[in-house]
């Protein structure tokens, strides 16, 4: 009886293998190799706030991307079910290898928080990307009709200075400290200032030690931030990212200055000011 079962089992296994091979030849494996999700990679999205009104944003075209769009909200109120989209636009037009979007009527001010969802189209499927935030800083505001200067024309005293300029050129470091002092004076006028920052990232779950390692790895991969990695004390889950604490306010302001071109690290104080859940009480004091 056992021998008969064994023979039957081997026959079934052979038939199953033949069936799988037949399906594979019929396109089963091609389904796994589908190109439908290609063409949705997005480069960094650049923003310009136009003065007195208007908003411009653009991104470089990645391979196979056919269309680019955005749904953007100014100072969104979390918990509100319906909120009008302030800028909802899309384009398939490519100019100098970039997708450009512009709204002439919207009014954006320094200190506003922009929450936006990027939408990409590869000609076959449309994908909505994870929401991201941007705090509008003065350097984003441009007089209407003027684009941002190309990176090659930036002087050491501007916010786009390189890590080598910041740490090796005295004039660049002085300019950085001047901007930090200006921020401190503004913060003091606004009220309380914490040592918390927010890193936007797709992964926000896991133990606190793992989250802290994610932040540390982010710093270690960027020359400008690497010297400040030792300032990171703790990290916890946040909505769409990681909230982390640094050693002191000066380090916090240095990080904001050096990282603001990438829009990944934001001031957590400003995010919580408009209604995001404040989890700072869950941090252990050190």
What does this structure look like?
By secondary structure, this protein is an alpha+beta fold. Among the domains are: 46-143, Immunoglobulin-like (Sandwich), CATH 2.60.40.2140; 193-276, Alpha-Beta Plaits, CATH 3.30.70. It has 7 helices and 13 strands. The chain has helices at residues 2-25, 28-32, 163-168, 170-190, 208-220, 249-259, 268-273; strands spanning 46-51, 55-60, 67-74, 87-91, 98-103, 113-121, 126-128, 132-135, 141-143, 196-200, 232-238, 241-246, 265-267. The strands form 3 sheets. Strands 3, 4, 6, 7 and 8 form a 5-stranded antiparallel beta sheet that branches. α4 crosses α6 (249-259). It is globular and about 45 Å long. The model is unreliable at 1-5, 11-34, 149-160 and 276-286 (pLDDT under 50). Residues 1-26 form the signal peptide. InterPro entries: BGBP_N, BGBP_N_sf. Keywords: Signal. GO terms for molecular function: carbohydrate binding. This is CBM39 domain-containing protein.
């Amino acid at each position: 009886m056992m021998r008969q079962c064994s023979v039957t089992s081997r026959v079934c296994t052979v038939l199953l293998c033949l069936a799988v091979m037949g399906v594979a030849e019929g396109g089963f494996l091609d389904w796994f190799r589908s190109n439908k999700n290609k063409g949705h990679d997005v480069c960094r999205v650049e923003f310009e706030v136009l003065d007195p009104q208007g908003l411009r944003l653009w991104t470089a075209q990645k391979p196979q991307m056919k269309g680019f769009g955005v749904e953007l909200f100014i100072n969104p109120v979390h918990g509100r079910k319906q909120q009008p989209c302030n800028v909802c636009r899309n384009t398939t037009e490519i100019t100098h290898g970039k997708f450009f979007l512009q709204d002439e009527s919207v009014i954006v001010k320094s200190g506003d928080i922009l929450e936006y969802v990027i939408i990409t189209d590869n000609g076959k499927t449309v994908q909505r990307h994870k929401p991201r935030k941007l705090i509008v800083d003065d350097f984003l505001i441009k007089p209407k009709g003027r684009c941002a200067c190309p990176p090659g024309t930036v002087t050491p005293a501007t916010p786009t200075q390189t890590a080598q300029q910041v740490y090796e050129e005295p004039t660049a470091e002085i300019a950085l400290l001047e901007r930090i002092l200006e921020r401190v004076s503004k913060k003091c006028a606004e009220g309380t200032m914490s040592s918390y920052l927010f890193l936007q990232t797709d992964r926000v779950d896991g133990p606190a030690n793992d989250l802290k390692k994610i932040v540390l790895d982010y710093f270690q991969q960027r020359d400008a931030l690497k010297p400040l990695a030792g300032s990171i004390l703790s990290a916890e889950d946040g909505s769409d990212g990681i909230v982390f604490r640094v050693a002191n306010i000066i380090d916090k302001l240095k990080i904001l200055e050096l990282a603001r071109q990438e829009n990944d690290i934001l001031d957590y104080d400003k995010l919580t000011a408009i209604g995001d859940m404040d989890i700072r009480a869950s941090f252990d004091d050190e």
